[in-house]
Amino acid sequence: MGRVARRTVTARPEARRRASPDASEPVSLSKSEATRQRILDAAARVFARRGYADTRLSDIADEAGTFAGSIYYYFASREELVEEVLRLGVTGVFEAVREKVEALPPDASWRHKLAAAIETHLSFTLAENDFATANQRLFAQVPGDVRQRHIHVHRAYGAYWKKLLEGARRAGEIRRDVDLSVLRLQILGAINWTMEWYKPGKRTIEEIAAQLAAMMFDGVAT
Q1: Which residues of 11-38 are buried (b: 16+ CB within 10 A; e: fewer)?
Q2: 135 close to 13: Cβ distance less than 8 angstroms
Q3: Domains and CATH numbers, the chain
Q4: What angle do CA 165, 3, 130 make, to 5 degrees?
Q5: Burial readout 154-166 (b: 16 or more C-beta within 10 A, e: otherwise)
Q6: Which of 7, 28, 75, 180 is most enclosed, with most CB atoms within 10 A?
């Protein structure tokens, strides 16, 4: 397939789930929770299109179909709103990658695990996910204090990739002379940059992911 289904990223589960006598029953959002989620979705779309400096709360309110003043009921400031958009952009892909890797058979090779991580991150990035797009566009634009408060989320995801790469090296699947920090940054940079050039139709996401994994493990020399 050349295009993947759009993924929806929602706010913190603990903030949106209500107690239910039967855990198997679907849990719906309350009116307040639904409004908060609608504002977040609108903010992600507007920030992704316009960037940080050119986005006003009134723009987000128009996109969400509400009043600018109503946003303050859910978020104390534009900075708090953008921080939540940034957080969801990273935690969404982190959770998707971790779930995919953990669903593999216990005897899966580290190459298989890394290939699954690459494909999942790539699919999330190219799924027209507004939170992922906003995160990539905003991170370098937001004020330094906002970036510093958010950087631990990036580091947690980076630490997960470090764990995968170290496991591959211990298993003898990556050479010991390879700098794993450089390799991790190279992989994530290559995946994230696809957002700038990918056009559905010519190559599928699976094909691109397979190429990235093959270049990582096999190189490009004949």
Answers
A1: beeeebeeeeeeeeeeeebeeebebbbb
A2: no
A3: 78-218 (1.10.357.10)
A4: 75
A5: beebbebbeebbe
A6: 75
pTM above 0.85, yes or no: no
DSSP alpha helix (H) spans, the chain: 13-16, 31-50, 57-64, 68-71, 78-102, 110-125, 130-138, 144-170, 180-197, 205-218
CA distance to 27, 52, 71, per residue, from 60 (Å) = 27, 12, 9
Query: Rounded CA gap, 48 and 105, in Å?
Result: 37
The residues, any chain, with a CB within 8 Å of residue 104's CB and separated by 6 or more, are 112, 113, 116
Phi and psi at residue 27, to the nearest 5°: -105, 120
**Is it the case that residue 164 has pLDDT exceeding 90?**
yes
Q: One-letter amino acid identity for 116?
A: A
Amino acid 128: pLDDT: 64
| CB hemisphere CA count around 165 (13 angstroms) | 24
